[in-house]
Amino acid sequence: MSKNSTLTFDDEPKRQLKETIMRNLVFLLMIFSFSASLEGQTIIGTNIKEYTIKMNLDTLSRKIDLRNVVDIEKVDTNRTTNLLLARYLTIDSVKAKGRKLNFFRAGDTLCMQTGMFKRSEFIFWYSIPIDSFMYDKVIVLTRGMKWCPYLHDNISVLQSEVTVPNGYKVYSSGTLDSKSIGEHNCTYQYSNKINSGLPFIIAPKNYYSEITKEQNGFSIKYCFLNKDTSLRKSIITESLSAIKFCTDYIGSYKRKQLTYIEVPKFGSAQSFETLILMSSEFINYFSLYKDMRFWVSHETIHQWIGVGYFNSIYNSPQFGTFIEESLTEYMRYVYIEKTFGKDSLAGQIKYVVNIYTTQIKGTDQDVPISSNKPSRVIYCNAPLIFHVIRLEIGDAKWRSFIRNLYSDNYGRCIDYGSFKKTLRLFANKDVINEMEANIQKKGIPDFLSSFHDNE
Fold first, then answer.
1. Which of 48, 292, 342, 393 is the most exposed place for a label (fewest CB within 10 A)?
2. What is the pTM for the complete model shown?
């Protein structure tokens, strides 16, 4: 990509499409931002160490029956243990140490009367109505759908056994340890030592066209519904290019496989551990508009930033989206530069500065990054703050910072304090103070305002 091919929306249909996509991104940001609500604040001090989940898909009754063993560690003295679970899911029973527990619901918080304990296994029996999780013919389960008892800012081991009729196939994060086929059913066993997103996809057999590639020592699988072979090839090429950039610039991918899987009517793209969901709409946008090709590299980079190491919601929420979404988006700018040249980066910076000046400034979206409100500035203004840091410390130190942030924190959930501690190794106090000042105010960094003024 050259300076002259900077991503732009020049006509009204493109502008409307861009606004639709940004609304989708802001909606995802709302989920991220508001998940640290009062409803969840009482669960700090509790930690889920491991899940052992057994699922059975019953297509006749339109449900999934679950037996979920949750290994919980508790460091507080509260006699009630709280987890998050969708309020409309009916629980048949909860037991601990052979004793049936009493519980009550407060919205999407499940409050169990456990008494005090340090560590214990809790067994949940419940079922999921699959029609509530259907996208066309695909069943999609992710943590944000609250289908499984969980905690925010929690990294756990996940062992799962999913039994489906022989006409179905299961996809999940982690490693597929075994697949056993019986007369009527097929059972998939997955293991994941570093789990947060709890994703499971159940689709009819042969529903997807599957393509497998090998790169950088691991396997990459693509599961498409879209029949356009040229479009599929373009997305594969873009993802492989982004993967190569990440492994070269940030660090090696520490998993054995990565799967990109298309979901119809999903409306967005999301990255989980070893699994990237691609909506059919976003795949079509990739074909229609060069401006909409950003999501492939953005979600791929999240495999390093966001689900390589994870970011805390609680400890510093006003910086949570900044050190995850905004940093990922800026690393996409670096990917553009390293792939297509410096003129492409300059063009991208000019583009986002112009977007802020002509579309965001003075609107209800024009808020400080620190407000932690779902806003376009997280994807537009905030990445520019990282660009200023990189200009001030130089590319070599910036790369060392990103590599250290990834290698030192892989598989951990970090907060802004951890982020800042690593940054201090490469940036002086003045640079960090300037960054924090930019986070606290509206607008783009003063240093970059000339990109618009000089047009």
1. 342
2. 0.88
